[in-house]
Amino acid sequence: MRILLAITGASGAIYGLRLAEELLKSGVTLTMTASPSGIGVCRFETGVELAGEPGEIARLLTTRWQTSPERLNFRDSADLWAPEASGSAAPDLMIVAPCSMGTLGRIAAGLSGSLIERAADVMLKEARPLILLPRETPLSAIHLENMLRLSQAGARIVPAMPAFYHQPASLDALVDFVVGKVLDQAGVPHTLFKRWGDTA
């Protein structure tokens, strides 16, 4: 499976990084990208640097997650010549995590000013899975209308809303719950949290 994962400028860059780690463990081929704001938030919140030459960023991430170079690519978000910008080379699945309300609004409007927006537009027009992880509160009527519009267009909306019924004992457990919910929507098996009713 070929997956495109985009990190944008909402708080919660850790969700994107943990998703990347778990997706690579599952054996997928992963392409990552990050908006300029996403790069800044990721640096501020996690200390992980996503700015620079894409090949070098890919090498650093390959080392971070101990994966093979053939399974991890990184694209500049301004690269509208990337394969993922074309319906003829669309990935099997795209995830935007976290998804800022600005990015969500531009996708909802069908704008394609960046690789992230164009690739999301491709996923919708090709009827391929698009999963968005919005992280904002409170939500305005505009935010809600944009999410409804995208849901009606076929996107899956998975808000960053951790649960507590699994009795999380750490911040990592809260992050993993949300990441696990995204993986559920992606059809990727995982054991990141204890499911309701599971006594094992």
From TrEMBL:
Binding residues for FMN: 9-11, 35, 100-103, 135
Positions with a binding annotation for dimethylallyl phosphate: 165, 181
Signal sequence extent: none
Keywords, alphabetical: Flavoprotein, FMN, Prenyltransferase, Transferase
Statement: the UniProt record of this protein carries the keyword Flavoprotein: yes
One annotated GO molecular function: flavin prenyltransferase activity
Keyword tRNA-binding: no
Record Pfam families: Flavoprotein (PF02441)
Catalytic EC class: transferase
Domain annotation Flavoprotein: ranges: 1-185
Reaction catalysis annotation: dimethylallyl phosphate + FMNH2 = prenylated FMNH2 + phosphate
Record EC number: 2.5.1.129
Family label: Belongs to the UbiX/PAD1 family.
HAMAP family: ubiX_pad (MF_01984)
Role this protein plays: Flavin prenyltransferase that catalyzes the synthesis of the prenylated FMN cofactor (prenyl-FMN) for 4-hydroxy-3-polyprenylbenzoic acid decarboxylase UbiD. The prenyltransferase is metal-independent and links a dimethylallyl moiety from dimethylallyl monophosphate (DMAP) to the flavin N5 and C6 atoms of FMN.
Protein name as annotated: Flavin prenyltransferase UbiX
Species whose genome carries this gene: Trichlorobacter ammonificans
